[in-house]
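Reopening: GCN5-related N-acetyltransferase still failing for me.
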Amino acid sequence: MAKAKPQIRSLEENARADAAKVMARAFAEDPIYHYLLPKERHYHRRLVWMMQFMLRICERQGVTHQIGSPLQGVAAWLKPGEKISFLDEIRAGVLTAPLHLGLTSAWRSNNIMAATRKNRTRLSSGKDYWYLWQFAVAPESRGKGFGRALLEPVLKEADETGTDCWLDNSNIVNLPIYEAFGFKSVEEYKILQGNTLKTIWHMRRSPQKSKKRKR
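Support: Ran it again with your exact input. Result attached.
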């Protein structure tokens, strides 16, 4: 008997806390998040808050999907043309960011968010696009097709409407994963921390044309 495919559904508000925890575990070793949140003692707690902040924005101005029961993965997108205003950030809790993250982390996070957004605007030549802001599968559930299933609804819509998709990847080990979904690195954004360079890869996925079946 064939195994049932995991069900994809919109992220429920009462599942946001669990989703943020799954995302924090998935990004536990991410170099950029360790740059943003340098105090290891508070790393996990602050990362969970940061993920909740991003989910709140995407719930209002994008699409958020969850998979698994209990929840095992999340994909959070911003819709094409959506702009994040300061009012949107206030609604998501940005004024309390220094309290939750600390002044240094709040400042770094704001700067990186602004810089990557500016870079994407330049690289996309002002065209509207889907933006995959967060994508995470619980470490114990990787390799089961959850990631592909999570991205499939938006990637399919993007293909049908001829819309690009973008993401910012900050972990080199994830490059081949995103490439398997059709994303390609367009430009690297470097951040110098002490004597170490941190890299963010701006990645674009062009609309994929469906392959016609051979007769």
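DSSP finds eight helices and seven strands in the chain. If you still see a failure, please send the error message rather than a screenshot.
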